[in-house]
Amino acid sequence: MIKIKKLSHIYNYHKKDQIKALDSIDLEIKNGDFVSIIGSNGSGKSTLAKHMNCLLLPTTGDIWVDKMNTKDKSKIWEIRRKVGMVFQNPDNQIIATTVEDDIAFGLENIGIKTKLMRERVDWALEVVEMEDYKKSEPHLLSGGQKQRVENITIIYITHLMEEAAESNRVIALDKGKIALTGKPEEVFTQIDVLKQLRLDVPQVTELALRLNKRGIDISPHTLKVEDMVESLCLYI
Ligand SMILES: Nc1ncnc2c1ncn2[C@@H]1O[C@H](COP(=O)(O)OP(=O)(O)OP(=O)(O)O)[C@@H](O)[C@H]1O
Ligand SMILES: [Mg+2]
Known about the structure:
single chain; four-stranded antiparallel sheet; Rossmann fold
């Protein structure tokens, strides 16, 4: 679905203060894959994402979305129809007149069919404890409430990811390069590497490792709270 070959991006290319934000990235994402891209501030995540819907074009290298090269001007709108994006700042994102419609728009953007929409919207509002605001106007919400509403799309995607655990992949960026890649349980348990990349280590994994060091038989690859609870219950 997405193929990236030797992609580099240099901001201010024609000026003195060049910034190499992406440095020869190779990456392939297949249809149905759920890939999380992580990395500390300035590691290149947003720059990479912007290449996926032609908001930026490569300085060198290529990126194809469903076999369409993003450099092909005639394909821009077709590519943008395929690549939905949720932005960091909730004020830039809210577009509908009610919270309910706004969430529906976000879910539609990630490919959820209308038939499923109503029940999904209700489920999502419950998760973020915003059921009472279903019919409210989004721009009247507080900053934190807006963020909760906009987080719904992310929560929803994460939920899907857990269901599709087989095709889960995490890619860690560092200074515009792929520093680490693998399944979540492989990536998030490499505590020393994660710390080197200035990334937080999941609390459950850190706890599992500490208990493991003290001789308690818990897999150091424990990532989910449920698994930790299950392992600990064996000791009661
Ligand atoms: N429009 C721009 N002009 C010049 N430099 C930029 C621009 N946007 C980003 N950069 C630089 O490119 C590098 C990568 O930035 P990018 O925004 O892709 O990082 P990020 O991983 O998304 O960070 P964050 O976690 O803070 O969102 C940084 O050094 C940043 O300062
Ligand atoms: Mg960013």
